[in-house]
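Tokens for chain A. Residues wanted.
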């Protein structure tokens, strides 16, 4: 092969490389947001209301997810959103009413781990790792915004980075100390913390009516009757389809439904039922008895 032929082949190779690079430059980068809901509820609740107990406050999940998307749009200006992954726990992995509403949001995928008897999430970290690793391996994302703080997420970060994705850790300001594990902070490519002003619009403390010390507590029959009243209103508002979703979980109620039941009962009774386990059981019994009678 003479010099002219070699030169001609080099020119063709260079031209091919230039075309490939031009096509690559036209391909937009893609990002996804991975949200550990347990971390968000605990950290945002503690920051805004002073408690991690989900039953004590309401979280505007739709508004918060939109805020995360807007923030990502600003940070990853030349990138498109793949979707938001929302990881939470549920008994028997059956969606609560709140989780169903989140799953219906555009560009949001709800992934559920188990919720044990102590209301602790199980299996969520492994779901995050599986999704992060799979999306990075298939080049579906170039950047991952991870909202969480558990040290168990370190393998997920390492797996995604091993396939070339950049992982950005997002957290919620802690009143004291840190609410994210140091090994996780060490592994990520960047860090960002959302402060009280960012979180406050999405967290609202629930009002609780207190008992009058000199007034007798309601009877179990009174509370059971109120539970049946609320069930009738619940069924009229949501329809039989929602009832069919509840029945497989008997005798348990999804957390959001149970909390709504308690709040409405306290409003009707003008008394708090917090700390009165027998009365709360009577309330649920009345609720379930009415629903089962209608099925």
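Reply:
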């Amino acid at each position: 092969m003479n010099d002219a032929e070699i030169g001609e082949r080099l020119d063709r190779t260079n031209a091919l490389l230039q075309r490939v690079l031009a096509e690559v430059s036209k391909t937009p980068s893609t990002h996804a947001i991975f949200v550990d809901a347990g971390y968000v509820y605990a950290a945002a609740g503690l920051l805004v209301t002073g408690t991690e107990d989900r039953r004590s406050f309401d979280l505007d999940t739709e508004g918060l997810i939109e805020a995360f998307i807007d923030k990502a749009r600003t940070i990853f200006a030349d990138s498109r959103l793949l979707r938001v992954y929302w990881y939470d726990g549920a008994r028997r992995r059956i969606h609560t009413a709140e989780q169903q509403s989140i799953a219906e949001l555009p560009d949001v995928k709800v992934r559920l781990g188990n919720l044990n008897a102590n209301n602790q999430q199980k299996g969520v970290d492994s779901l995050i790792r599986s999704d992060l690793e799979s999306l990075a391996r298939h080049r579906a994302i170039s950047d991952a915004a991870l909202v969480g703080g558990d040290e168990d997420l370190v393998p997920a970060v390492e797996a995604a980075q091993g396939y070339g994705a950049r992982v950005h850790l997002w957290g919620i300001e802690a009143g004291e100390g840190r609410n994210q594990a140091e090994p996780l902070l060490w592994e990520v490519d960047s860090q960002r913390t959302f402060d009280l002003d960012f979180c406050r619009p999405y967290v609202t403390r629930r009002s609780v009516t207190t008992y009058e010390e000199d007034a007798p507590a309601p009877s179990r029959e009174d509370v059971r009757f109120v539970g049946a009243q609320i069930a009738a209103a619940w069924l009229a508002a949501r329809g039989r389809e929602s009832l069919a979703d509840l029945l497989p979980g008997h005798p348990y109620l999804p957390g959001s439904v149970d909390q709504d039941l308690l709040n409405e009962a306290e409003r009707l009774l003008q008394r708090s039922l917090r700390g009165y386990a027998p009365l709360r059981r009577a309330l649920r019994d009345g609720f379930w008895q009415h629903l089962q009678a209608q099925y």
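Residues 56 and 207 are 8 Å apart (CA to CA). Residues 209-213 have pLDDT under 50 and may be disordered.
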